[in-house]
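Hi R.,

Here's the chain you asked about this morning:
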Amino acid sequence: MLGRKERVFKKHIAVSLDDLVPEDNFYRYVEAKLDLNFVRDLVKDSYSSQMGRPSIDPVVFFKLQLIMFFEGIRSERQLMRMVKMRLDHRWYIGYDLDEQVPNHSALTKIRQRYGLDTFIRFFEKIIDLCQTAGLIWGQELYFDGTKVRANADANRLVPRYYLEALQTVDGHVQGLFDAGLDTAAASPAGEDDQAVIEDDVQSNPAPRTSIRERLINKYRDARQVGAHGTSYERISDRKVSATDPDATLMRVGNTGRTMLGYHTHFVVDGGKARIILGSLVTPAAIMDNTPMLDMVRYSRFRFHLLPTIAVGDTKYGTASNIAGLEQDGIRAYLPRTDYATRSRLFRPDWFYYDPQTDCYICPRGYELHRHKLDNRDQVTVYRADHYHCHACQAKARCTTSSWGRAIRRSFFQEYLERAAEYRETDAYQKAMRKRQVWVEPLFGEAKEWHGMEKFRLRGHRKVNIEAMLIAAGLNLKRLLMHRGWGRRYGPAGSWALVLPIPTPPAEAYCLFLKYFTMLLKYISKPQPSINSSKLFGMEKIYCFFFDFFNKLVVYCHSYSPAVIITGLPDSSTTNRSAVYK
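And here is the predicted structure, written out as tokens:
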């Protein structure tokens, strides 16, 4: 007999939301292990103590931000739709089944009310919790940066003067409206109302700008004068996006394609938990090495750390960074590009420096005396007499200048030589190997699972808020693991990068060996009329097979062995397939 299900819904009276959420739910664990009541102290200065209607609970707002982070949601509108449907989300934010959840537009207004400083203090509070739990080592600091696309189109740039003119006109019109409102409201307020306003101003003074907020404002301008001075003109100096004026052009990958974007900088602790100690977003025109010293000094003094080494890649190995770290008592494990190897001329390190006479001695025995000081590049130029160079038989291998060979000695040469000695030690080599797997996985985790592939907000301060929440969420994941969640599955693959790699099924190995052996037998057969093109084609087939079966083995992690034979999914591993796909 054919059955038919009618859609009839009853009103259930004796139903509790607490009974509908499983005991092992992830958000139950977050609620039990993370107390967010401290955020009320962070935002109390943003509200009046004597007037206005009650606002949305700040704890609810930050819980919604954590849900957005853990679920990998990029839209606040989509977030509130999901919260309205999901029972565990309602339970986590404390809204019952019959309660109306906040509107998505309220989240935007709350974020604007709180400002950047509130999110900075929230991020620092999470780091303090990690430090209290013993997750921060503090002996090593690792630096790296990544490019993040902006929420703007690079094909719709306008001249910078055009945007500045629009902003001037808008400011003038807004001033006229403000003047009209002031005239309309010229009637004096009552004594009681005036007393309430004065008391409210005295009890809620304007907050001071924090040190980290001043640091973020420092790098807001895309025009940072470097070695080229002000004569070098970037495209961002002439053109700007009207959608996101703070974003600048950047190259993506090796394709040469340009997009609008930002640079996101992380400072990561060298402990096993890999806690992010600093997050800073700058326009893409600002290079990775520029804010390094400011970030390391802020992290040291804010969290009372005494690091011994600072590790970065070649982009960070500038003379100013090395000198600044060494002056602060931190070993600069920063590689430098050796440009001397790109020339056939005598290398600068073949010239001996005599500190007694303050001159260089060339391999032929001639002296190079101090010629001038270059304060822009912070170097001292030493030059040989031109008649000595013209008479020297090795001039063709030494210099092409008619004025004689010149050597540029940095003002910080002593620190540069000390950093060069570090590169010969085993500790330096170990730190370089560790750096390769320390910061980049955090960027990959944030881009793959938490929406940092492209910023959803616009503007320098707003993208810093977004990056600060992502960095706080990454630290929070490590803190929850330390407090007992372990390596269990989290929402939206949140724990995908910290799950242990399971052993591939035996069937996958058998299948790989079977086809790999067949390929080897085919290649080993004598081919009487084989040519180089066929051999190259076989090599391509070999590489294809190897890459294909390597991916097959990884893919089989998420399924039971029966899948490889029957092709049917195993219901017990559905969640894991979402993690590893």
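One quick note: The chain has a mean pLDDT of 81.

Cheers,
M.
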